[in-house]
Specification:
The two termini are about 30 Å apart. The chain has a single domain, classed as Na+/H+ antiporter like fold. Helix content is about 80%, strand content about 0%. The protein has about 325 residues and is an all-alpha fold.
């Protein structure tokens, strides 16, 4: 029987396989998209609950202990990346649906499988793990501000507050609240601790199931929205190519050790597509079809990019260096 560690170690290849199967299913049986659409919210809620239970919300003090990394993380994700995204979106057409989709996904740093990619890329995944509560809270607070800055009144006109708020409450606040209760229970009762351990099995299979349902239900929209998709792919590719260089510069400015620098690169390059997808699906028709297609496209581009990252980051961009000082810093980072 496969262990959870083996499942997590091989999850990237599982997702790649699931994406291929989902694409084939959606293209061969497009009529199934409607029934799959109805399942997205429920499956996403379970996935997000599973993800949130694994985020150490009660270890904020530990996260703040490595202040250099936290400062570098915030500067990269909320100053350097937004400036880059603003520059890249200048090459997009003025279509608000395309712009909204790109902004939603590129302005929100990943809080889940970035930990796995960081580990595979020989970065300090523990630093990323304990930083996830900070990233989650800050992106939820800053995203509306960035949308208003980048889109002006247009964002208020196309984002209907009612459905948007309903999706935020149902698919983010409720799973988050349940996850916090689960963590609180686990700190006080043995049954709660065992239940929390059991929830650690949820993210990988439900991530795979979510990817299958989302891609299978949205692939026909990608196919019919090829005109829109073809315009955002170069932006996503450019983003994946440029952010490692920016993160490396920030890493040097803050004098991070090698493994922490790699973690910063993966945080900058990996985005929060599945968390913002519910917000896109809450938009009115036909806007939600274009926005969700733009977001799903980023997920596919990102997965391919991450497979390159895990090879290039440790072997080319930030190679291990010898020396007592470096080794000492690595031990402290752990």
């Amino acid at each position: 029987m496969i262990s959870r560690e083996q499942l997590e170690k091989n999850q990237v290849w599982l997702y790649a396989f699931v994406l291929m199967i989902a694409a084939g299913t959606g293209l061969l049986w497009p009529e199934s998209s409607e029934s799959l659409d109805r399942m997205i919210s429920f499956i996403l809620a379970i996935l997000l609950y599973g993800m949130f239970t694994q985020i150490p919300f009660f270890r904020l003090q530990e996260a703040l202990a490595n202040r250099k990394f936290i400062y570098a993380l915030l500067v990269t994700n909320y100053i350097a990346v937004p400036i880059l995204v603003w520059g890249l979106t200048r090459f997009l057409p003025t279509d608000p649906a395309i712009l909204l989709g790109v902004l939603l996904v590129l302005l929100t740093p990943c809080i889940d499988y970035v930990i796995v990619f960081t580990h595979l890329g020989r970065g300090n995944e523990k630093l990323v793990l304990v930083s996830t509560p900070i990233l989650f809270v800050t992106q939820m607070l800053l995203l509306p501000i960035y949308l208003a800055l980048f889109m002006g009144k247009t964002s208020a006109e196309i984002v209907s507050v009612g459905p948007f708020l309903e999706a935020f409450l149902g698919l983010i606040v409720v799973p988050l609240g349940l996850a916090l209760l689960t963590q609180w229970w686990s700190r006080r009762k043995p049954h709660g601790e065992r239940f929390l351990d059991a929830t650690a099995w949820l993210p990988v299979p439900f991530m795979a199931l979510t990817l299958f349902i989302v891609v299978a239900s949205q692939i026909s929209k990608l196919y019919t929205s090829y005109h829109f998709i073809s315009q955002v792919i170069p932006v996503y590719v450019a983003y994946m190519a440029i952010t490692p260089l920016i993160a490396r510069i920030v890493s040097r400015i803050f004098r991070l050790d090698t493994r922490a620098g790699r973690a910063l690169i993966f945080s900058a390059g990996t985005r929060n597509s599945l968390v913002v997808l519910p917000l896109a699906l809450a938009l009115p028709e036909p806007l939600n079809g274009v926005v969700s297609a733009v977001i799903v496209t980023q997920t596919i581009v990102e997965l391919i990019g991450e497979l390159l990252y895990i090879r290039l980051v440790p072997n080319v961009l930030l190679r291990e260096t010898n020396g007592t000082a470096e080794n000492k810093m690595n031990r402290l980072g752990r």
